[in-house]
Amino acid sequence: xxxxxxxxxxxxxxxxxxxxxxxxxxxxxxxxxxxxxxxxxxxxxxxxxxxxxxxxxxxxxxxxxxxxxxxxxxxxxxxxxxxxxxxxxxxxxxxxxxxxxxxxxxxxxxxxxxxxxxxxxxxxxxxxxxxxxxxxxxxxxxxxxxxxxxxxxxxxxxxxxxxxxxxxxxxxxxxxxxxxxxxxxxxxxxxxxxxxxxxxxxxxxxxxxxxxxxxxxxxxxxxxxxxxxxxxxxxxxxxxxxxxxxxxxxxxxxxxxxxxxxxxxxxxxxxxxxxxxxxxxxxxxxxxxxxxxxxxxxxxxxxxxxxxxxxxxxxxxxxxxxxxx
Length: 325
Hints:
CATH class of the domain at 2-173 and 202-228 and 292-306: Alpha Beta
CATH topology of the domain at 2-173 and 202-228 and 292-306: Rossmann fold
Low-confidence stretches: 257-279
Order of helices and strands: EHEEHEHEHEEHEEHEEHEHHHH
Number of helices: 11
Shape: globular
Radius of gyration: 20 Å
Structural class: alpha/beta
Strand content: 15-25%
Number of strands: 12
Distance between the termini: 42 Å
């Protein structure tokens, strides 16, 4: 029997859909306020929904009865400094609880970490699983939470846990809508004027879920894998997105000093207005970096073929166009 945490989220719902489509019966954890995603509604006979918070050890213990495999996708994602303490507590303690229970009951785990938990390579080199954070990224609460959560899994592995870790790059997909990474495409649709000079790795949500299932079934343990389809300049991503939307692409580069001014102004405006910040410091700094990731280890282990990023962009733009019309 399989259990999925975070099954109401972007990645978790896609993973649960693929597992159910393969004929598996699942237990999916959700909070009382969470809504079952539309993509999972066709699988009501195969998915048992259990209300449980990952911080509630007793509820988790009950949910794990009869479970042999756990996919841990649940995580609080926020770049709001006000959420720092609670996000770290939720992500780290929740993972620790699950690790302890899986170790206790001999349950195999696939844990979703992030490229935020991986260090940077030397200039001109691809970032690989061998690159480790040299110091805790104090300003980036999300990175702290993912790094320390991953450390809980490694701690569990040292104690005998049967687990493998995935570190996805920036996950995109049509099912995101205008939330999360979907905001990137919505912004281009609204006539984005500036592009940033950096680059990053991107991967379709379908391929992240597919990778996790392949790794779970492989029996591989005590390893971490970067899940990344392609590395693109943000300029190229915005241009390809604009082409699909049939809108003008951004033509002016946002210099580093402009991005620094943007996040500072956004922070002040947020304090004065009480509204969420439009640009945060972490995102502004990352937008100027060239962060490119190596997917060779995952391909060698699973033989996966990734969906071309151009196809993912086309599908996302089509879905958003229909939503906007």
